[in-house]
């Protein structure tokens, strides 16, 4: 699986949009971008995934650049409960393919 | 639809004892994955199982650790003769299997193992 690079940490204000960047310059054509988060010591929570088109669900939006070498996860209205470590993972979407977690971005939402 | 369930949530063992961690996948899911998170470290893949089969155990320590996913019942991660270095959070994830758009892994709340 391709390697990803994320900022170590970032702060954002409650109620504002949080934009979390991820670089994956060596991504292959059949690899998807997945986002998970881990709140405190809970189990990782799936957020969203995409291949090349932008995706949106009830939790977040995923913007993938045209060359697919980077992406941005957008939390439209951050709340204090969004404070967590966010992981960007690139993997082939197939049963059995493990998730390789990097260091992630530690996001602190401040009042 | 209940999520992935793990029990116990907390487990304390003395050195040399055995630890058994259980994972019940989401309804309709036939693939199970185990991950370990050591203190202040990231999650690391351990093993991937389908019903009655171990498919990928490339992340499992060579000794003392074993996993199974029987035809009936939960998946079990077994650690024999635990040592202090086994203290960690162990997370189970499940996916429907079958590839395509249905292979997203969903995680349970984890079991926190403390070895005294």
Describe the protein in words.
With 111 residues, chain A is mainly beta. Helices cover 0% and strands 47% of the residues of chain A. Chain A has strands at 9-13, 18-23, 31-38, 45-50, 55-56, 61-64, 70-75, 84-92, 105-110. Chain A is globular. The N and C termini of chain A lie far apart (37 Å). Chain B has 116 residues and is an all-beta fold. Chain B has no helices and eleven strands. Chain B has strands at 5-7, 10-13, 19-24, 31-37, 43-50, 53-56, 65-68, 75-79, 88-95, 106-107, 111-115. In chain B, the strands form two sheets. In chain B, strands 2, 4, 5, 6, 9, 10 and 11 form a seven-stranded mixed sheet that branches. A four-stranded antiparallel sheet of chain B has the order 1-3-8-7, with no helix packed on it. The N and C termini of chain B lie far apart (37 Å). The relative contact order of chain B is 0.33. The model of chain B has no long low-confidence stretch (mean pLDDT 93).
Give the helix/strand layout.
The complex is a heterodimer of chains A (111) and B (116).
Chain A: E1 9-13, E2 18-23, E3 31-38, E4 45-50, E5 55-56, E6 61-64, E7 70-75, E8 84-92, E9 105-110
Parallel strand pairs in A: 1-9
Antiparallel strand pairs in A: 2-7, 3-4, 3-8, 5-6, 6-7, 8-9
Chain B: E1 5-7, E2 10-13, E3 19-24, E4 31-37, E5 43-50, E6 53-56, E7 65-68, E8 75-79, E9 88-95, E10 106-107, E11 111-115
Parallel strand pairs in B: 2-11
Antiparallel strand pairs in B: 1-3, 3-8, 4-5, 4-9, 5-6, 7-8, 9-10, 9-11
Distance, first to last CA of chain A: 37 Å
Oligomer status: heterodimer
Straight-line distance between termini of chain B: 37 Å
Largest sheet of chain A: 5 strands, mixed
Characterize the largest beta sheet of chain B: strand count, sense, and whether it forms a barrel.
7 strands, mixed
The structural class of chain A is: mainly beta
Using only C-alpha atoms, the radius of gyration of chain B works out to 14 Å
Helical element count of chain A? Answer: 0
Q: What fraction of the residues of chain A are assigned to beta strands by DSSP?
A: over 45%
Record the strand order, biggest sheet of chain A.
1-9-8-3-4
């Amino acid at each position: 699986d391709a390697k990803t690079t994320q900022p170590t940490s970032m702060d954002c204000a409650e109620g504002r949009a949080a934009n979390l960047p991820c670089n994956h310059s060596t991504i292959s054509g059949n690899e998807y971008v997945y986002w998970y988060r881990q709140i405190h010591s809970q189990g990782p929570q799936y957020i969203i995934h995409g291949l090349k088109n932008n995706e949106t669900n009830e939790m977040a939006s995923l913007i993938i650049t045209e060359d697919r070498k980077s992406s941005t996860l957008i939390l439209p209205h951050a709340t204090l409960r969004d404070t967590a470590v966010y992981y960007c993972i690139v993997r082939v979407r197939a049963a059995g393919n493990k998730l390789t977690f990097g260091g992630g971005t530690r996001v602190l939402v401040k009042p | 639809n209940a999520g992935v369930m793990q029990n116990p949530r907390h487990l304390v063992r003395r050195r040399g004892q055995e630890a058994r961690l259980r994972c019940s996948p989401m309804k309709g899911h036939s693939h199970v994955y185990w991950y370990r998170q050591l203190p202040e470290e990231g999650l690391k893949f351990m093993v991937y199982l389908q019903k009655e089969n171990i498919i990928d155990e490339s992340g499992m320590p060579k000794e003392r650790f074993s996993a199974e996913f029987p035809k009936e019942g939960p998946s079990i991660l077994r650690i024999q003769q635990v040592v202090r270095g086994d203290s960690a959070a162990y997370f189970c994830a499940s996916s429907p299997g079958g590839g395509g758009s249905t292979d997203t892994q969903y995680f349970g709340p984890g079991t926190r193992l403390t070895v005294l």
